[in-house]
Amino acid sequence: LDDFFDNHKYDIVHSHLDCMSAYPLKIAQKHGVKVRIAHSHNKSQDKNLKYPIKLLSKHLIPKYATHLFSCGKEAGDWMFGGNSYTVLNNAIDAEKYRYDYQIRNQVRDELKISKSDFVIGHVGRFNPQKNHPFLIDVFKSVHDKNRNSKLLLVGTGNGQSNIREKVDNLALSDSVIFLGNRGDVNRILQAMDVFLFPSLYEGLPLSIIEAQAAGLPCIISYSVPSECRVTDLAESLDLNLPIDEWADVVLEKQGTIRKNTIDDIKKSGFDVKQNVVKLEEFYLNSVEE
Q1: Hey, what's the torsion of the CAs at 56, 61, 63, 69, to 10 degrees?
Q2: How confident is the model at residue 50 (pLDDT cuts 50, 70, 90)?
Q3: Which of these, 241, 287, 245, 247, lies nearest to 149 by C-alpha position?
Q4: Which residues, 6+ apart, have CB-to-CB distance to 162 below 8 Å?
Q5: Please, which of 19, 35, 100, 282 could form a disulfide with 54 given CB 3.0 to 4.6 Å?
Q6: What domains can you pick out in the chain, each with its CATH number?
Q7: In Å, how far are 18, 133, 175 from 54, measured between CA atoms?
Q8: Per-residue pLDDT tens for 96-143?
Q9: Which of 265, 282, 288, 287 is nearest to 88 (CA)?
């Protein structure tokens, strides 16, 4: 980083490394960068000491940052420890996710899914935070009650092989589709009937906003901040509830009529076109100051 700043002149450094932002901002300060932004995108639990360096590093951030940004209140409260910060919503191009029946049929044809199948979906990396083992257990319960159910999993990660093994052991291989990383998540969401997201913790997951923009009922855990429930489509459940209760709530969403929620997304401040203007104005004003 010293070499980098020796050879490049910047007015602003905007770091998205969560707790580890302290270090690039420290070097940026050393090299005279006037505007130094730390941006929180997640929350965690202080009792989780698996990453003690991260927990220590977050306390250094206010020393080196001139401005603090967060994707939401819970993420900001956790990382910045009582220091004031600005919430800048994670944002999407809402129009891209508008529900389209023709695209729904196209994607189902591509994935060899029947029009009558009940499709549950999830978008997220295969890591412990996303709670895939719990998700598979919920789907197993759903599948026992509706044999025409399918599960679409978008994403990759180190935990994927364990989840594949679990799916095989539960004899669900014919009903669970691993899609890997996709550049067309907006299309894949059209093919789903329910979005399931039982994370152990989150900042403010963009995938929930995307799913609501596509008109999908969303079943999320209480660990996901309530700020992401920007329409009446999102419902929160306790992870301590029995698996069968989660499954019953998912099954209740069968036959839900998809609706256009784009206006709700925009009014809630999650449209990227609005947020680009806000960030641009901040950058320009901060440099002028």
Answers
A1: -150
A2: low
A3: 247
A4: 133
A5: 19
A6: 2-88 (no CATH), 94-267 (3.40.50.2000)
A7: 9, 26, 39
A8: 999 999 999 999 999 999 999 999 999 999 999 999 999 999 999 999
A9: 282
